[in-house]
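Minutes, project check-in
Item: structure for the 237-residue chain
Input as provided by the requester:
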Amino acid sequence: MFPPVPPPPTPWQLDAARAMEGDDLVAAGADLEPGTLLEAYRLGLFPMGLGPDGHGTIGWWSPDPRGVIPAGALKVRPSLRKVLARFEVTVDTAFPDVVAACADPSREGRWITPAVEAAYLRLHELGWAHSVEVRQEGDLVGGLYGVSIGGLFAGESMFHTVRDASKVALVGLVRRFHADGDPRRIIDVQWATGHLRRLGAQEWPRAMYLERLAAALEAPQVDLAGVVPAPPPSSTE
């Protein structure tokens, strides 16, 4: 759905600016209603349950430092470039399937509960949450999902069942989200793991992230399912 439908506002008070330096967990409680989630992302927060496997009380996180892929930062190595043509990349054709794959209970470090799945499905139905699907010979073999607000894409999770498929999903997202060349756009990856750093993710202090987030939110909303992808980013050794 484009443009997305604004939900009722949240009644909860959320504020990442009050977090202590170096403390990733900012608050606990509230709910997963669409208005709460959107307000949280606009304030630099995202939810993850505090109990085992993501169950229990909702925690609201604002990592310090924050993992981010800004415009022009993605690194596509020659080995990855060679495999891009082996896959088909689509947007918003199988959102529930992508989230379900990311929530697979057999995955190590799982945190996506049925309540989280339901919450992001509601956001998807309103046009705010999106999936990038990667297929090979018609089979769904990788993908990612997240929330798009103005010039922010807040990545939530990715998966793959075939080597490089999640990387292909990220390249597909970047090609679409940054197609207009607006330098304010940022892709939030929460924590910059070694895997993501090799793909160009950077670590920003929380204060810097919040400053850049404010500018990103002023950028136009992207119709990810309808945008014509930009050419693949240049190779980087």
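Outcome recorded: DSSP finds seven helices and ten strands in the chain.
No further action items on this chain.
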